[in-house]
């Protein structure tokens, strides 16, 4: 069972968020005879060239919540057999991706049906998570991999009991949410940490902000222009994603996918025939670190991706109209020189500070 299936089993857990006051900490509140806990609010440090970010009113960022989420992200106790953490499939050195097309390190040993996405700039992910948008926010998304039999396969009640045996965690949950260890607080803490994973200090960013001593080469500037003109409708703005869903022509035959509906993409969630084969647009940021590519990792490198868009698009009724850039034919005309320029620019989107930031690394 994939994390998407597990998510659907736990949609009822969203009811837990209806009692957010349980985890809120306000002056004057009293929990029994315990002293009132007031965590320290935190604002995200947003790069100057980025759009504004809206703070989540139901899970406001705090210093204590972020620290707890970081601890949990790297803790193998979150998996049923205590051998996998979130970081097992989301490695910082490759922009929180996993370098595998379809991973099989989960508890069942089965090959997963979807490629693990990189975790980059999730504070702006306001249009669903998973490749098909099967979860509405980071909090609900976390239940998927945690409980999936093919991934972390954790019983949430047992997880609460296990973490309650760790005095440091008992104190951290109290400090962050004025709560005992609860699964709703676990996913809220994970979401807080993940929202801090901001990548916005590549050489391109410093050029965009006109920082002193930073420039792009003539080839990189050509690549930037080409990305904007040929790819920018989907990989839009400074985030290099529209957070939308598109059929990019990697499949046009879905007859063998009637039961699992993995290839059907967004339709799996909406049941709208217009969403057949549509998948979420990933960011181009750090893309040179996050191979392989697509929802199933079928393309090993950027050259294969560019070749697909150039002349390998498979046409179906929902293939995105934006891909018909070759007259009335599907495809995006790209010369050999232009391919090299695009790759040069994409390399300039690599943010080495992001993959080395100690605030995102394993504690201790």
From TrEMBL:
Posttranslational modification: Binds 2 heme groups per subunit.
Cofactor binding note: Binds 2 heme groups.
Transmembrane segments: none
Gene Ontology CC annotations of this record: periplasmic space
Subcellular localization, as worded in the UniProt entry: Periplasm
Annotated ranges, domain Cytochrome c: 64-174
Protein name, per record: Cytochrome-c peroxidase
Organism expressing this protein natively: Mucilaginibacter psychrotolerans
Lineage: Bacteria, Pseudomonadati, Bacteroidota, Sphingobacteriia, Sphingobacteriales
């Amino acid at each position: 069972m994939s994390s998407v299936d597990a998510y659907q089993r736990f949609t009822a857990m969203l009811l837990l968020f209806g009692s957010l006051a349980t985890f809120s900490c306000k002056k004057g509140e009293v929990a029994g005879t315990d002293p009132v806990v007031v965590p320290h609010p935190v604002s995200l440090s947003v790069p100057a060239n980025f759009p504004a970010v809206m703070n989540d009113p139901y899970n406001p960022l705090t210093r204590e919540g972020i620290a707890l989420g970081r601890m949990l992200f790297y803790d193998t106790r979150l998996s049923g057999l205590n051998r996998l953490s979130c970081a097992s499939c989301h490695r910082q050195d490759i922009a929180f991706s996993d370098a595998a097309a379809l991973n099989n390190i989960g508890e069942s040993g089965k090959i997963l049906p979807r490629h693990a996405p990189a975790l980059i700039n999730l504070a702006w992910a306001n249009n669903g998570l998973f490749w098909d948008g099967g979860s509405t926010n980071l909090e609900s998304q976390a239940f998927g991999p945690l409980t999936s039999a093919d991934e972390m396969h954790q019983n949430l009640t047992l997880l609460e009991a296990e973490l309650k045996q760790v005095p440091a965690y008992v104190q951290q949950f109290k400090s962050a949410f004025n709560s005992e260890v609860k699964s709703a607080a676990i996913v809220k803490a994970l979401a807080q940490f993940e929202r801090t994973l901001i990548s916005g200090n590549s050489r391109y960013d410093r050029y965009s902000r006109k920082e002193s001593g930073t420039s792009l080469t003539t080839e990189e500037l050509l690549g930037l222009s080409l990305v904007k003109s040929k790819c920018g409708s989907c990989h839009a703005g400074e985030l290099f994603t529209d957070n939308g869903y598109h059929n990019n022509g990697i499949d046009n035959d879905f007859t063998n996918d009637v039961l699992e509906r993995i290839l059907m993409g967004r339709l799996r969630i909406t049941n709208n025939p217009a969403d057949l084969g549509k998948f979420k647009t990933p960011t181009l940021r750090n893309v040179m670190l996050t191979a392989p590519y697509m929802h199933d990792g079928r393309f090993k490198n950027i050259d294969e991706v560019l070749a697909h868009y150039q002349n390998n698009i498979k046409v179906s009724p929902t293939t995105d109209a934006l891909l018909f850039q070759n007259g009335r034919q599907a495809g995006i005309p790209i010369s050999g020189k232009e391919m090299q320029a695009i790759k040069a620019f994409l390399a300039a989107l690599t943010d080495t500070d992001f993959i080395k930031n100690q605030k995102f690394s394993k504690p201790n």
